[in-house]
Amino acid sequence: MRDHFEIRDADGAGRIGRLEVPRAGQSIETPALLPVINPNTLTIEPAELESEFDVDILITNSYIIRQTDRLRQQALDEGLHELLDFDGAIMTDSGSFQLAEYGDIEVTTEEILEFQYEIGSDIGTPVDIPTPPDVSRQQAESDLDITAEALADAEALDCGEMLINAPVQGSTFPDLRERAGRQAAETDLDVFPIGAVVPMMNNYRYDDLVAAVAASKRGLSADCPVHLFGAGHPMMLALAVALGCDLFDSAAYALYARAGRYLTVSGTEQLEDLDYFPCSCPICADHTPAEIRAVDDDDRRERLLAEHNLHVTFEELRRIKQAIRSGNLLELVDRRARGHPAMYNGYRALLDHADQLERDDPVSKGTFFYTSPESARRPEVLRHHQRLDRLSTPAQLLLTEAGAPDSDEYDAAWRVVAPFGPFPRELSDSYPFTAAVPDRPDRGGQLAAADGVRALVEANPETEFTLAIDEWHADAVDQIPERVTVESLSAIQGQ
């Protein structure tokens, strides 16, 4: 049991937690964003991140520091926190990114972790192999074996209070991701980054990203704080949190600003294409796009865009936390999915794992809002269908979309509400049946309701069922078992 990570609230697989970082003397609330700091090219000083954005944890690259004579000596003499002028927690990467991009690096896990410890890192990282998507299975397995050796080497070191990352690799093979997650969780290491996903995000392969993260999470235990390496665009944070990721690192705020790119929760805009800012952060409130374009100083213009990019990203994280607290995280994911077709693919892929989300999803929370056909596939609907066999039914049962009829023909009348299907009327004031659903259910909701009817009927072979409905889609009606008598709702109401 990892006592340095505590889950405080949850919705779906998303959670609000506290990560204790003992060497820094910090308690970090998650989900948390770690701005990436390159000490050679600072867009915003770490001290300003701390004072202006309340950043309490960031990430920098220990390999770059070690390979740069000036930085290495200063870090060894003064310490990493003094080098960066930052009082919060600092995570350090190991050079694995450089290994993936440029080939071999001249450092071992033991050497780089000892260096990270010596310069005062709070969370260190071994040298794993970030296996890119779509490689052969042979390469993915070979790389995974090397990463497993790196984790074993890291576990054997005495690094005092420094937490150590246990990266989870496996390319685009779900079984390898799950195996890697299980192997990492079996170590006594502390934080669990899911690696080599940046190529998927760069190519808008959010459905593949979901598959990789979901598989990794199946291997990891619930007490494992999960870091999604390289993920920091605000448009995908809600999706990633809903999958159960807790930490994110972003170089996008600076890299995109350098290229004149403006981040939003629905995508990326080019500054030159904007006439108005769709944001009310301090930068956007005080400037127009034309004014920022007119700034002669490239560094100043880049700084302004970077500040906006951070503001919009931290605002989204706060919105996500409130959604978890309110119990409507998946509705936020649904809204974000409408911003880009690739995000919609990711949301649909997320709901392919509704059974996995259901295991962590609270059984009672705020009102369920049916906002799209995908709402019919949410964990709450799946849970109700799975538990219908726990309900006892009378000999003659009417399932109806409307109120109970004035008739003694049936022993009881249960409600049928899309997407849940049937449930006893006495549960109408219980979650999730207090749901706000459209008066005119769509096909997806009716198909889900039909699945619920089928589950109830199959669990109760001795009961005679009548289903009273109007204007259901033909394929939803076709899913109703043959032994159910389907009647017109208006005819039933007239009895």
Mind explaining what this structure looks like?
With 495 residues, the protein is an alpha/beta fold. 43% of the residues lie in helices and 17% in strands. It has 22 helices and 18 strands. It has helices at 46-53, 62-67, 69-78, 80-84, 96-102, 109-119, 137-156, 174-185, 198-202, 206-219, 234-243, 252-258, 282-286, 289-293, 298-326, 329-337, 341-351, 354-358, 379-387, 443-459, 474-478, 489-493, and strands at residues 5-11, 14-21, 26-30, 32-37, 57-61, 89-93, 123-124, 163-164, 192-194, 226-228, 247-250, 261-264, 267-270, 396-400, 412-417, 421-423, 464-469, 485-488. The strands form five sheets. It has a six-stranded parallel sheet. It has a five-stranded mixed sheet with strand order 16-15-14-17-18. A three-stranded antiparallel sheet has the order 1-2-3. It is elongated, with a radius of gyration of 26 Å. The chain starts with a strand and ends with a helix. The model has no long low-confidence stretch (mean pLDDT 94).
Give the SSE layout:
Elements: E1 5-11, E2 14-21, E3 26-30, E4 32-37, H1 46-53, E5 57-61, H2 62-67, H3 69-78, H4 80-84, E6 89-93, H5 96-102, H6 109-119, E7 123-124, H7 137-156, E8 163-164, H8 174-185, E9 192-194, H9 198-202, H10 206-219, E10 226-228, H11 234-243, E11 247-250, H12 252-258, E12 261-264, E13 267-270, H13 282-286, H14 289-293, H15 298-326, H16 329-337, H17 341-351, H18 354-358, H19 379-387, E14 396-400, E15 412-417, E16 421-423, H20 443-459, E17 464-469, H21 474-478, E18 485-488, H22 489-493
Parallel strand pairs: 4-5, 4-11, 5-6, 7-8, 9-10, 10-11, 14-15, 14-17, 17-18
Antiparallel strand pairs: 1-2, 2-3, 12-13, 15-16
